[in-house]
Amino acid sequence: MTSSDTATWPSLSENHPLLQLHSRLPKILSNADHTSIWGVQLSPSSPPVFSTLLILQKYLRSVANDVDKAGENLTKTLKWRKDFGLDQGTASEDFGPDFEGLGYVTKVGNEGGSRDVVTWNVYGAVKELKKPFGDLNRFLRWRLNLMETAISHLNLSQTSTPIPDFGHGPDPHRIDQIHLYEGVSFLRMDPLVKAASRAVIEIMQAHYPELLLRKFFVEVPLLMSWMFGAISLFVSTETAKKFQVISYKENLAKELGNMDDVPAEYGGKGPDLRTLGQRLKTEAHQ
Ligand code: HEM
């Protein structure tokens, strides 16, 4: 039993959309033939389990409490997770040298005194596009592995922090994402990058609702700033509102609101990304 199983959700009226969606779980789970998501085992038991409500809340918030739509979307996600082979609890895959140095997960302290999970995508470090992007399926497995690792650090099955204000306040269980574009040397939209970014955007939109806190695009070369508008066209308005372009990498720490957990290269006082990423891994195993 986890601490989340015993935590109490703020009391809800009988007709609350969250309880309506919860009552549909047995059908959703049997239709999808899959019950796990982001480290949480969805449970239809009553009284409802805290971690199950946290997941349902995200699905409801992403569709303005439309219970039918939330149920449909959750069913699709669970089916997709099963097909994609997520939640199998196997040892983490080694993606080899083509992905070396391209992605990190760290934590950055926030104003509230806790720490936000952050994913770093160092796309500017890609020298040969074919290496990470040539095999779309392999790239997707790598990118989603980074996302799933970041989510695992939210400890959704353990937490007892509900979304404040009966689900209307800011969701504390979200992650920051940072794209580092320094050194990008491809001035046109390569078909491989186009295919990879479209596929990730689609999957994130369909299967990772309410998980993005903020998204930073750092050191976008002036000649490529048009790409921001072009790619943002495929993203929902709600998501695009969370985007921020940072022209000078030294300004990133200030925007993140933390010095100690951000590498000196990005205006902080912390060590490099490799060290910070390793630090989080060690912490998680303690
Ligand atoms: C050739 C260099 C580039 C590569 C390899 C690249 C790669 C990617 C990939 C793989 C994604 C999918 C989302 C993710 O992984 O989180 C993405 C998304 C995106 N990229 Fe880039 N990109 C490049 C250049 C740019 C530039 C110059 C801009 C301009 C700011 C840009 C803006 C965006 C935006 C707005 C998204 C959508 C974000 C989202 O919804 O997740 N990209 N990029």
UniProtKB/TrEMBL annotation:
Its cofactor is heme b. Keywords: Cytoplasm, Endoplasmic reticulum, Heme, Iron, Lipid transport, Membrane, Metal-binding, Microsome, Transport. GO terms for biological process: Golgi to plasma membrane protein transport; regulation of exocytosis. GO terms for cellular component: cortical endoplasmic reticulum; cytosol; endoplasmic reticulum membrane; plasma membrane. InterPro entries: CRAL-TRIO_dom, CRAL-TRIO_dom_sf, CRAL/TRIO_N_dom_sf, Sfh5. It is found in: Cytoplasm; Endoplasmic reticulum membrane; Microsome membrane. SMART domains: SEC14. It holds the Pfam family CRAL_TRIO. It catalyses: a 1,2-diacyl-sn-glycero-3-phospho-(1D-myo-inositol)(in) = a 1,2-diacyl-sn-glycero-3-phospho-(1D-myo-inositol)(out). It is a peripheral membrane protein. Residues 138-274 form the CRAL-TRIO domain. Its main location: cytoplasm. One of its GO terms (molecular function) is metal ion binding. It comes from the Eukaryota. Non-classical phosphatidylinositol (PtdIns) transfer protein (PITP), which exhibits PtdIns-binding/transfer activity in the absence of detectable PtdCho-binding/transfer activity. Regulates PtdIns(4,5)P2 homeostasis at the plasma membrane. Heme-binding protein that may play a role in organic oxidant-induced stress responses. Belongs to the SFH5 family. This is Phosphatidylinositol transfer protein SFH5. It comes from Kwoniella newhampshirensis.
